[in-house]
Amino acid sequence: MLNLVLFGPPGAGKGTQSENIVKEFEIIHLSTGDIFRHHIKESTELGKLAKSYIDKGQLVPDEVTINMLQEEVNKHDNPKGFIFDGFPRTTAQAEALDAFLASKNTSISGMIALEVPEEELKERLRKRALDSGRTDDADPEIIANRIKVYNNETAPVKEFYGRQNKLYLINGLGSIQDITKEIVKTINAL
Ligand code: ADP
User: Is 132 a residue whose pLDDT tops 90?
Assistant: First the structure.
């Protein structure tokens, strides 16, 4: 199986690049942010809980997120692989994912980490807010909190995969197509 983690701060382009990677490799895209937003739209209990965190720019608790992700993975029979987008976002999530995949006799093939400077991220999120309708993109204070949470809790996940020699850094500045090309090249060399 080809199991990828697509990593990067809010606004790095994970969603956009995931769409292109999925087309190229025919693997399944699982975005925990998208799944939470789906639950919020459907007003499920999980959605209500998730919304209370997302609206503050905080992470949804690990246990909730991990259980949800595992359920989504289990929905697929004989998949070619997965691209995990926005997950794992804490070291505890990364450890849980490793154990879960090991229980299925598979593992993470590599982490693709998109690197984008903070000023550019803020600008992209501000623009995205205009047409995404995402309330967590619209408020500069919430954005600042998401970036802070990223630096404190999520960035260490990079080292987690680095220690396993599975970390691949990609420059997230440039045209969407050029970045996709870099990612595809990296995946083909795994
Ligand atoms: P972005 O990467 O642009 O911030 P996402 O769509 O990935 O957006 O996530 C939106 C929000 O959903 C996050 O700010 C967080 O509150 C919640 N979320 C998404 N994935 C996770 C996760 N793996 N663990 C905890 N919370 C998450």
Answer: no
Domain range annotation of the chain: 2-184
Q: How many Å lie between the centroid of ligand 1 and the Cα of residue 128?
A: 15
Average pLDDT over residues 71-80: 97
Query: CA geometry: angle at 92 spanning 10 and 65, to 5°?
Result: 60
Fold designation for 2-184 = Rossmann fold (3.40.50)
Number of Cβ within a 10 Å radius of residue 29:
17
Residue type, 183: I
Q: What global pTM score does this model have?
A: 0.95
Ligand 1 contacts CB of residue 145 (under 6 A): no
Mean pLDDT of 103-111: 98
Per-position DSSP letters for 9-22, written without gaps between them = STTSSHHHHHHHHH
By the 8 A CB rule, do 90 and 35 touch? no
Return the residue whose CA atom lies nearest to atom 23 of ligand 1. Answer: 87
